[in-house]
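Table S2 (text version). Query chain:
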Amino acid sequence: MAQDLLRSGEGRFWRGNLHCHSDRSDGLCGPQQVAAAYREAGYDFIALSDHFEERYGWRITDTRNLRASDFTTILAAELSSGPWRERITYWVSAVGLPLDFEAPPAADPAEAIRRAHDAGAFVVLLHPGLNNLPLDATDELPGFDAVDAVEIYNHNTFGSVPDRAHGEYMVDGLLERGRRILINVGDDAHFAFPGDRFGGWVEVWAETLDARDLLAGLKSGSYYSTQGPQIERLELDGEQLRVSTSPAHAIALGGAGDRWLDATSVLDEDGGLVSEGAFDLSAFRGSYCRVTVIDTGARRAWSNPVWPWWPQPNRFIWDGSGSAEATAAATGATAPMGTGGGSSSSSGRREKSSRSCPSVPVLRSAAAGW
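Corresponding structure-token output:
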């Protein structure tokens, strides 16, 4: 029987961004402005991932009062494995954190990454290309086994250090080594320049626009990542993978296989558009493959990895026990937004800009109406 790799049960796709910042850490705009900008741009949800660091007060930005019937948030934070200037420090977005998430021990910053994963967060390795994280170092990195997904494209980096915006080397390197990781993209928006946002997002299949349903969809791999193209069908039927997309220049299948020539693409030899593809997966037996859709503007969409003849990622079931985030998501409770802002000058990977927030709409809380 054919297996739908995108959808699980009733639902629809919800557009979201899992990597953005406000002035609660090193962004320029307040949480309300960030949320409003994404809502106005057609997003259904965001995970505001402000840096969880001592310099910013070890604080999870509370965005629950920005939720409404047509827009929601998932509590999140960007965690680091060590001091920002260390060569092999890495960063993750931990999506689905409790508000009372505690600071890690001073001698073990990566403890927060392990604990976030154990608490049920979806842990995404961020911008490996930006900090040129060595693949060979990952075997020894503290907490790295907690990573659920890798950011294959970082939009902010494309606008500032374009040759380091992509993370395919890390995605395929880990998959070749047998890691069962998923794929993600993110903006890393700081609202520092116009091109640092709305350039990469996830389309998550879920029954409702509820933080718990969205998190379950992410953890189960029921989503795809995109810069614009749509993946409408990803269906595994024995040795065949059937794909339907929005009109595109190419639908490409890649992965380990028996040799690099096993990769193949669906193209129109006359230069037209394609939207359907059927791929023989026999060369990928016991390994993995993945689909990339490329439109005429060179924008891409990425499927999560497919493991032929191996179980796909388990469906994630979370009862939220002991989690403040789960309780808030279930009840729709709101809480006052935290106050204060980030340091005006801090050492590390990215300095806080002295520029002000650009003109963006202000999102009013659900209680106040739209």
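Notes on Table S2: The chain has a mean pLDDT of 87. The two ends are 46 Å apart (CA to CA).
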